[in-house]
TrEMBL record:
It comes from Rhipidura dahli. PANTHER family: MICROTUBULE-ASSOCIATED PROTEIN, MICROTUBULE-ASSOCIATED PROTEIN 1A. Residues 1-36 are annotated as: Disordered. One of its GO terms (cellular component) is microtubule associated complex. Residues 22-36 have a biased composition (Polar residues). GO terms for molecular function: actin binding; microtubule binding. This is MAP1A protein. It comes from the Eukaryota.
Amino acid sequence: VPEDELSRSSHGNPGKSLVNGVKTNPASNSPKSSLSVPLGPPVYVDLAYIPNHCSGKNTDPEFFKRVRASYYVVSGNDAANGEPSRAVLDALLEGKSQWGENLQVTLIPTHDTEVTREWYQQTHEKQQELNIMVLASSSTVVMQDESFPACKIEF
């Protein structure tokens, strides 16, 4: 085997790249199609934790169209980092409106934040129309010398 051929094979094919750990050929894929997730049926679950503390970094209406839960947990409590994100809460409304069935959904915020309060007040009619209930919880758990907010979930 000639030396130049050996070095080419050991460095791989520069025309191919990795996207999400999968080899792709950029010439045959547009940027949008190489990052899109294949379509499939929605997934129904009892409980879903909204990713990234309800940050807009990874969650959009597509998440709520595909992951259909009876209960969504919102744990964000960091306004400086956009957690929870108003855009994600709005995405829940948009995604749920695409379900085609009016299943009951309960949103469980684990912290009382200005963002969730404003969203609740401003979109209350839309929530009722879409059969979304927001579960407010002001429970506190005390363990040893520490107390923290808690939310009890029953199925």
